[in-house]
Write a structure and sequence with these properties.
Length: 567
């Protein structure tokens, strides 16, 4: 994870995505075509049509206002506009200089003009950012802290604290960035200390494996060495995996019990038992995360790889792609399983026999196929079928298969879609032309009535903004596994969210759901489930125990036969 330079990286990565030309867009369509699981095989055609509609403008929003200053000023560090080639050592020397020139002007220097001073200050700040980025080297080393003893961890901590104090004393403007780095360090060390079920995989298994299913099949589990400690049964816990050589090894939670085992946990939101709510909602425990994060956070991953399975966790879209895309993982189709728990403690689950998350080039598009559920335990196919909330086109608009991933700063959903190639003049004002359905959603009202309509549309027309989480949205969704867990009342029911706009004109909409919902379980949009989990394993995986029996619930628990046979 690019920790020290995350603020800079998110802005530049977002700019590069938005500036991508039609050739790159159509290249992404080739990747989509490789995993086109649709019945009519029209995924490629749909993708190419979207490219033609989009370029050369941004489909969901304007050019980035935050970069306009870069076009006006030569250097603008606070908008992350820094030229290459700045002599960082001139402003932030690694070693203390033996001698300084006379102040305020160095020997032989001419009296600077106001513009020169302003430029020098900007270069000073840019150089500071560059120096801070050196902390990344130290933070990369922290990934190895989980494999060292306590003395090793403390040595790394002392090294970090020394550098932290040095940089912190340089400028008050660095407080926020340094605080974020410090919190990340605490999270990393905390994870190492709390996960006592960390499996020493290099020692036991002869090296890091590709996924949790690979660990499950290792001969170690049937050896005498595993007899007394683990009764010769593959164990759930925290392992280190490396699906492909072009991605660094990373830690995951391996579930070796559910439905025969072999699962890699890629997402966890909420708690599995109601009595854990107080501890989970305690901010000091850091078990409950904020899911309203930016693109770079969702790309890299966040949360705790906790052995107890009660801490929020997102593996990261890049890692999910490496695990699920056959072109990356050695040609293995993956099964995607989703588990839900309601506030009565009832468990539900369902599986998609094929689940793929494409690369960032395709905006991490989700493709699933062949849903299956078991009787009264089935969650229903919300991703593939959607839900007819209000009649008409709602069912088609809430299907999430083939949808791109969206965050509040990278809107890829299909709500309030517009293009600079398709504009109109209304009462002397140039505004987008919207579809009939977007007009019904009042997207046109926003454009016509607000002077800053582009900014206002980023709120009104963004599913990620409305739902408070990143996910694969259409217009918006029948299932949001990253939605908010409402446990305050202990029932899961909550008041639907109100979206309002102000600025010379007022608009309000009161019916937005932002909870952890799964509509095909028919609890309503104002019901938030207590827990959701996503896990993947190879489609052809077969465990040692029979997976076709009743031991299909989380952690290998047995289903009730009557409920399993319920239609």
């Amino acid at each position: 994870m690019k920790l020290a330079t995350a603020l800079i990286a998110v802005v530049f990565a977002d700019r590069e995505r938005r500036a991508a030309g039609i050739d790159e867009c159509k290249a992404a369509c080739d990747e989509i075509a490789a995993y086109d699981y649709s019945d009519n095989g029209d995924g490629l055609e749909t993708c190419l049509t979207e490219c033609d509609q989009q370029f050369g403008t941004a489909l969901n929003g304007p050019e980035d206002n935050e970069f306009l200053q870069c076009e006006v000023y030569e250097i603008d560090p606070f908008n992350f506009c820094c030229p290459s080639g700045i002599d960082v050592n001139e402003y932030w020397p690694v070693e203390k200089p033996a001698q300084r020139g006379h102040r305020p002007i160095a020997p032989g220097a001419e009296c600077p003009t106001g513009c020169a001073i302003a430029k020098s200050i900007d270069e000073f700040v840019c150089a500071f950012y560059s120096r801070v980025s050196e902390l990344e080297t130290i933070l990369v080393d922290l990934a190895n802290a989980l494999k060292t003893d306590l003395d090793g961890i403390m040595e790394l901590r002392q090294k970090f604290v020394r550098r932290y104090r040095e940089v912190s004393s340089k400028s008050q403007r660095s407080i926020q960035k340094i605080t974020e780095i410090g919190e990340t360090f605490i999270d990393i060390v905390k994870m190492g200390l709390e996960n006592e079920d960390l499996i020493d995989e290099p020692k036991l298994f002869g090296g890091i494996k590709k996924d949790c299913a690979d660990y499950y099949k290792q001969p170690f589990w049937t050896s005498s060495a595993a007899d007394q400690t683990w009764n010769k049964l593959p164990q759930s816990g925290v392992y280190q995996i490396q699906p492909t050589r072009d991605i660094d090894p990373f830690f995951v939670y391996c579930d070796q019990k559910t439905a025969g085992g072999g699962w890699t946990l890629i997402q966890h939101n909420g708690i599995s038992r109601k009595e854990l709510w107080k501890e989970y909602s305690n901010g000091e425990k850091q078990l409950k995360t904020d899911w309203n994060r930016n693109w770079e956070n969702y790309k890299a991953g966040f949360g705790h790889v906790a052995s107890n399975g009660e801490a929020d966790f997102w593996l990261g879209l890049e890692r999910m792609h490496a695990l699920t895309a056959p072109k990356k993982n050695g040609g293995k189709d993956q099964t995607l399983r989703i588990d839900l728990v309601d506030w009565e403690g009832e468990e539900f689950f369902g599986e998609y026999s094929k689940g793929v998350i494409l690369s960032e080039k395709a905006d991490f598009k989700l493709i699933v196929r062949d849903f299956s559920g078991v009787g009264g335990y089935s969650i229903g196919d919300a991703l593939g079928e959607g839900m007819d909330f209000e009649g008409g086109a709602q069912k088609a608009f809430t299907k999430q298969n083939y949808m791109k991933f969206s965050t509040h700063d990278n809107d890829n959903d299909k709500l309030c879609m517009w293009s600079r190639n398709n504009m109109q003049t209304v009462y002397g004002k140039t505004v987008p032309k919207f579809s009939v359905h977007d007009e019904a959603a009042r997207c046109g009202d926003v454009a016509k009535n607000f002077p800053d309509w582009e900014k206002q549309l980023a709120t009104w027309g963004s599913c990620a903004q409305q739902d408070g989480a990143g996910f694969w949205y259409n217009r918006c969704s029948a299932g949001n596994l990253n939605g908010r867990v409402y446990g305050e009342t202990g029932t899961g029911f909550y008041e639907l969210k109100t979206i309002s706009l102000e600025g010379g004109y007022e608009m309000m909409e009161k019916n937005h759901d932002d909870g952890l919902i799964w509509a095909t379980l028919n609890r309503g949009r104002d019901y938030s489930f207590m827990m959701a989990e996503m896990r993947v394993r190879p489609k052809d995986f077969v465990g040692y125990s029979a997976t076709a029996g009743l031991e299909m619930l989380r952690n290998g628990r047995t289903m009730d036969e009557n409920k399993a046979n319920k239609n």
